[in-house]
Amino acid sequence: MKNGWTYLVLAATVLVYVVYIAMAVWTFYNLPPIPERVVTKSGELLFTAQDIIEGKALAQKYGLLDYGSFLGFGGYFGIDYTAYTMKFFVDKIGQLKGTALASEIKHLMTPQFSAKTSSLFAPAAGVAVVSDEFGAAYKQAVDFYKQLFGPKAEEIGLKPNLITDPEHVRKIVSFFTWGVMIAMANYTNGFPYMPGVLAPNIHVTVATWATFFILLLVIMPLAGWIIIKFIDYWKEPRITVDLPPPSKEQRLALLGFVLAVLGLSIQGLLGGYLMHKYTEPSTLYGISGINNVLPFNVARALHYNLAILWIAVSWVSFALFVLPYLGVKLSKGKVLAILGAGAFTALGILLGVWSSYLQLLPDPLWFIIGSQGRPVISQGTLWLLLVAALLSYLSVTVWRASKTSPEPIQPLVKILSIALAGTAFGAFMGALPVVTPWWHFTIDEYFRWIIIHSFVEGFWPAIVIPILLILLVIAGMVPPKMAVAAAGLDATLEIVTGMIGTAHHYYWGGQPTLWMYVGAVMSTLEVLPIGFLIAYAVVLWKRGEYKTELQKTLLAFVLVAAFGGAIGVVAFGAGLINMPVVNYYTHGSQATMVHAHLAMPMAYGVPTMLMWTVAFALAGAFGAVQLRRLRIAVVIMAVGFYLQVTLSLMLLMTNQFIATTQVGYWASKAIFAPDGTPAFWSRQDIQMYVWLRMIGDVVAAVGIGTFLIYMLRGLPKVFKT
Length: 721
Hints:
Blueprint: H1 4-28, E1 37-40, E2 45-48, H2 49-61, E3 69-70, E4 73-74, H3 81-97, H4 102-109, E5 112-113, E6 127-130, H5 132-149, H6 166-184, H7 202-234, H8 248-252, H9 254-279, H10 296-322, H11 332-357, H12 365-370, H13 381-404, H14 410-430, H15 441-458, H16 460-474, H17 480-500, H18 514-524, H19 527-542, H20 549-577, H21 580-586, H22 590-618, H23 624-663, H24 684-720
Helix pairs in contact: 1-14, 1-17, 2-6, 3-4, 3-5, 3-6, 5-6, 7-18, 9-10, 9-24, 10-11, 10-22, 11-13, 13-14, 14-15, 14-16, 14-17, 15-17, 16-17, 16-22, 17-18, 17-19, 19-20, 20-22, 20-23, 22-23, 23-24
GO molecular function: cytochrome-c oxidase activity; heme binding
Domain Nitric oxide reductase subunit B cytochrome c-like: 35-186
Protein name: Nitric-oxide reductase large subunit
């Protein structure tokens, strides 16, 4: 079948969204219950469904989920509001009853729901009855959080006196308390862990064993098939395409690359700042007042948004640079308009997050043009809609370009177009609802992770791999038939496993338990296509299939990306935090940082930096000397991230795991215990491990700085030429 891989990728794209819509119907009819009223056994009203719903929205408005986390979802520093509130209740109930007996405390902690589940169209139903001791603990929790988010806010890394409205605090604590209630009622598969009170249920272990079995069942025959195809296509004829010097319109696109490398540099500085805040939450090297301008939650949101933006801006710029080679006519005005729209959107996202978290935007503008307050997907809905529109336009443009591109690479260009369209639809889903937050936390998490995976695990690989393979094809290093097969296989597997595998984030958020089995199995299968790319790159290297400086550069970057992505995605992603029985104890910990700080910069950052390098080389700004030095620079950057992981993040992850298993999940993220005694982030050994990360930060900065210097120096040559 002509372009059979193209049709397969298109079918996979449609399939995953059909599956999501079907599963959404089932999920949204089986939500953890939000009771109309929560009352004590003696009949006292504690809070209502409206308090819970408004408390969730307020937690987002104040940026609390980019500081701490709820059911493990959110920031990696601060406290987990569900686990910490549970610990607070356990302590207070024990004091009120004069007992330390876990079974008795557990009985007093467990609510009685008269309604089993909520649904999308029936948000609140029934009554929840709690013990009188639970009610007394709730009132004390409100007083505790009034101090934590008020006078003590600056001490823990937040804006000074972040929340001064006592009614806002009460509603937020009602939301936290609801999290405790659904956890105790076993709607979260036994999460968060609290010795003697809450533990993982049987599904956690069974799902893990099922994952191992299905992985072995699938991986062996599929790996064999890949090897056969690898051998079949290896001797296919190769082509070499000599590209002419870029036009003036193409050279304008390189301005986007310079903006991207500046964004990467600022992102790196913010990463170092965030780790400093782990050890000194209230000041910066003793200088007070910094939290008025750049508290932890603001810096974190800007840090990960810059990671997304510099990569996205680079891809848009590279598309503008390459499209004329594929027969698309671009005027100077159109190039500048697209770059301007991208820069406007990026700047709007960053300023929106900053102004929203500092409470400078009123309702509902903070949600629309500021920040939704959902971690990672914190962009205001207006900006997400603009991103979706820009990606849709690029998808259509690239599809048209496939008709005029050289015949051997036409399927690769079409796969790229489909992947852009899939990402655009994911961005649109992330913008829902446009004006106000979702009322139920479980619905919110359902949509939030869809957009994250449509960008990272699902469609981004289907964008990056075709681009890399197009470069390898025109450089004469990969036979076109092999490139199409590799791109088609990778895109199909990544889209299906990466998108449906989104469910590995649904273990503890209140989604139906079946999602645990689906997520564990499907996301683990994401490792398969990466192995194919590593195998081919290694064979190229061993056989000496590189002659020119550009070929050597392509191979070096692909190897760094393939191995780094394999370690970050396979070892620390699918192989570690994806497994339910491991994820239960490491969810939302530095284990996720280990995964992200290898997978993101290696699997996506390095290929993006290769786009910079190739474009500047074709524009005459980089010669043989610059290419050799940039190959060294990208290796240095990779070494920096490996040092981050080995000297700091893995040690933090291990100690968090120990703290969780010995004391409870609450202990792995807290600066101090509810009674005021120092906790995890106050330990001297932990602070030392945090500071050790500076070694890796500095090494990575040397590599990134080299790119920044060479690109700034090369830009004048681009326009002189």
